[in-house]
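Sequence in, structure out. Go.
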Amino acid sequence: MADWATLEHAYGSARDVPDLLAAAEHASEETGPEWDDLWSRLCHQGTVYTASYAAIPALDAMATRHAPAGYVAALQLAASIIASQDGPRPGADVRRDHPEHVANLRALAESSLALADDDTEFVYGLQALMAFEDGGVWQRCLDHLADGEMPMTCPACHATLVLDLSSEASTLADLHDGSVPPTYVEPGRAAPGTVEERLLALATAHGRDVVATQVQRLLGEADCPRCGHHFTVTDALY
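Output:
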């Protein structure tokens, strides 16, 4: 059992975390105020804390007890904690400290993909799976597919760019200057044996053709609309 009094979350002492965990598990909704309170303390705008890591076993247990579903809040929160790059410890250490929990959560995340009600739920489930499989940048950015736009940064001039994934023509625009003409991104291919190949295989196997097309666009190459630098889209994701 964690010594919560010695741990911290976003607002200070983590003494209240056990009560918050209990309240969230018994909440009637997966996105209600009880879960909002827990998220704000354990994964505040992507930042995690010592209490966040200590909560992983409890979140695993909660996700395991939950009825199978396309979206399970405990699983999603655990995934975000493990995927975070803004915390006191690197993700590799967290995975090493919780191998059994990560393995169980990975299995739950993979099985939940078939239960997703729509592409949005599927995308969130896929991102969670990538967190438990240490799937590189995909464990943090896939949720943008649900918005139809992917933010990125030009590797050369560091302009903030946004790729439109919602229309047939994938345009890459300068986020802060609409006067700059957009450029276009042609879909790319996943190399055999890569995480990207797995993403495409999972999307295709579950009939998520729109998601598969979006991922293919993220595997393409583009010219920065601001400076003209040619780059691979995946190199600009964060």
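Check: The longest helix spans residues 99-112. The chain is about 45% helix and 15% strand.
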